[in-house]
Amino acid sequence: MLYEQIQETSAAIRQRTAFQPRTGIILGTGLGNLASEVDVEAAIPYSELPHFAVSTVQSHQGKLVFGRLEGHPVVVMAGRLHYYEGWTMQQVTFPVRVLKALGIERLIITNASGGINPHFKGGDIVVVRDHINLLPENPLRGPNDERLGPRFPDMSAPYDPDLRAGALAAAKKLGIRAFEGVYSALQGPNLETPAEYGMLRRLGSDCTGMSSVPEVLVARHIDLPVLMLSLVTNVAFPPAVIKETSVEDVINIAAAAEPRLSALVRELLKSC
């Protein structure tokens, strides 16, 4: 059933555009402006695609944008789907499978996160090298279709080392503060308590959020190289520095720092 749905959605997209993207980009909370920098060939709202769920979160536009960044052919998910919105993990990750079926060669995932490495500052970019998955569900649960990937995908290197090296080199060239680190994923939608931030730090996490890991699991299932770039919007460790934070605060901080993330992505695409 899933395989057939992927083919149906891919065919619906191909009826709207013949553009061939090489890189897929998922935009996180407050980071949607990168889509406006694309030389657009086609834009398709999620609501017009079969089997696609629709973004409900503030700042997530909810459309696929096909076009070029720095001359590189991309498809941008302007707005992601989250488990906390009420979608199943299969719905959250379905777009990744469709982008793979459309022929992308790599996936760049962006998100906003809370910084729990005490050396991080708001606006820093974390090039994720590993993750801690604390979500209550897995998108690979259930019968496995070998046409999509193996029953037990290996996760010894979830984030592509060449893409990570390229991102760090691009950041250094542009003078952008960027660090490698470990991302942890929780269900949300509430932000974490001070004790939970402390627990995550003791587990080895550098930043934390409510998304992205499901997409990574599916990308590895379908053998798609992944890069995750996490933008630190609020510093949450040690407990003494925690401040009350709203979604508007996260969006505003992410929007202010977005030009740096956009510049990094554009620089990286020059070498892809």
Which short descriptors sum up this protein?
Rossmann fold, alpha/beta, globular, single chain, five-stranded mixed beta barrel, 272 residues
Please provide a written account of the structure.
The protein is an alpha/beta fold and 272 residues long. The chain has one domain: Rossmann fold (3-Layer(aba) Sandwich), CATH 3.40.50.1580. The chain has helices at residues 2-14, 89-101, 161-174, 194-203, 213-221, 247-269, and strands at 23-26, 39-45, 63-69, 72-78, 106-115, 125-133, 178-185, 207-209, 226-235.
Q: Briefly, what is this?
A:
The chain has helices at 2-14, 89-101, 161-174, 194-203, 213-221, 247-269; strands at residues 23-26, 39-45, 63-69, 72-78, 106-115, 125-133, 178-185, 207-209, 226-235.
From the alpha carbons, calculate the radius of gyration and give it in angstroms: 17 Å
Number of domains: 1
Distance between the termini: 34 Å
Characterize the biggest β-sheet: 5 strands, mixed, barrel
Secondary structure tally, helices: 6
* Helix coverage percent: 25-40%
- Low-pLDDT residue spans: none
What series of H and E elements makes up the topology? Answer: HEEEEHEEHEHEHEH
- What percentage of amino acids are in beta strands? 15-25%
CATH architecture classification name: 3-Layer(aba) Sandwich
Principal-axes geometry comes out as globular
**Structure class:** alpha/beta
Mean pLDDT: 92
**CATH class assignment:** Alpha Beta
